[in-house]
Amino acid sequence: MGLTATIMTAHLNDAAEILAFLRASGDDKLLPRPDSDYRSSIEAGIFCLARSEGRLIGVAGAFVLSGSPPVLIEMGSCYVAAEFRGFGLQKLFVRARIAAATALIHQDARILTAITPQNLGSRASVLKAGFEPLTEDSRLLMELCGYCAARPGETSDRLCCCDFFYIPRGRQLDEIEALLDAPTVASGRDNGEQLIVSIDIDALKGAPRARLDALVTAEEPAGRVDAQA
């Protein structure tokens, strides 16, 4: 039998385990963030985790930067245990968080992310999901610089150690539609190993699911091209 995993919505009783998991990772590519941000994300229903046979194998956050229009959501704090890398879990985490933020925060939320240049894995995942470089003013995303020890040197022309990306509306809806159509996917590594991943987040249940269904149905593919312009 192959490996299986479930991506689900985190709840407050998972908070201590999530924080311990991130701290134990020793990954210097994870951007620093106060514990209160994680709890706010969990309370909002937009923090996801993955388990395999009960074991925590990955986490991924989404954080509200601006709750009034235009609503801005930052995706961050994604980490997958080393032995489960190569199955595309990061991309599935991206898909799950897009759906959660859209269904639970605001259907017109603009979703952004900040990635250090050396974090090639996360960069590849967000580009594959349809994110594009953000060229406009990204000062809201820079608010965490106050917590960060990896600031650009005085001789650098960079304002921040990160590159910023956003997902256009059309691609955002494509990711939601893909999740609604196939909440369980089989993903394989180059060596032939397979992981069956079920995405069972709260946004796919009840009223939030109905909102996603209505949103995808209302905005037909032809209209999505216009939304990206």
Automatic annotation (TrEMBL):
Gene3D superfamilies, alphabetized: 3.40.630.30
Pfam family for this entry, one: Acetyltransf_1
GO MF: acyltransferase activity, transferring groups other than amino-acyl groups
PROSITE patterns: GNAT
Stretches assigned to the N-acetyltransferase domain: 5-154
SUPFAM superfamilies: Acyl-CoA N-acyltransferases (Nat)
Annotated protein name in UniProt: N-acetyltransferase domain-containing protein
Organism the protein comes from: Methylocella silvestris
